[in-house]
Amino acid sequence: MSNSRTPASRPGKHQQVIRGFFDAFACGDTDALARCYHPEISFGDPVFLELEGRDLVVGMWSMLLASVTDLQVSAWDITADEHSGGARWSADYVLRRSGRRVVNQVQAQFRFEDGLIVRHHDDFDFRDWSRLALGKPTGMLVGWTPALRRKVRDRARHRLDEYLRSGSPISG
């Protein structure tokens, strides 16, 4: 009896890809992080609703890494099967621009193609994140409003576009 699964499609391999992604992220190694992603990766979260393609998605992670200090990433409950996976993870960091400490608890979902992550979706509580990232009163009082979410999303996308055009870390 033959096994029709290729080594790259085995659930254990996909768990290793997810672990490799978080290890690379924790070390700030965007080259290793990029190797976990399929060239046609799509990413989404409450701030960046939809990013398409490895350059854009890895650029977003690179921009994030350039805009924080004291980053600590941990991942647990990593699961995977032949097609999909998930993990819970947290990022604890200080924003360079404001000096605010943020601890973000995230639920991630992954889809795989050719043994790589082709879809990555992170979900977190935007209101909790905005309270920490934006401070008082903005994040605490209006972190739940559609207007603030739209403003944060627009600003984040604008900063990402500038970051990618400049080819260098974002300032301040």
UniProtKB/TrEMBL annotation:
Q: Where does the SnoaL-like domain start and stop, copy by copy?
A: 18-120
Looking up Pfam families in the UniProt record yields:
SnoaL_2
Q: What is the superkingdom listed in this entry's lineage?
A: Bacteria
- Residues in coiled coil: none
Tell me which InterPro entries the record gives: NTF2-like_dom_sf, SnoaL-like
Query: Under what name is this protein listed?
Result: Nuclear transport factor 2 family protein
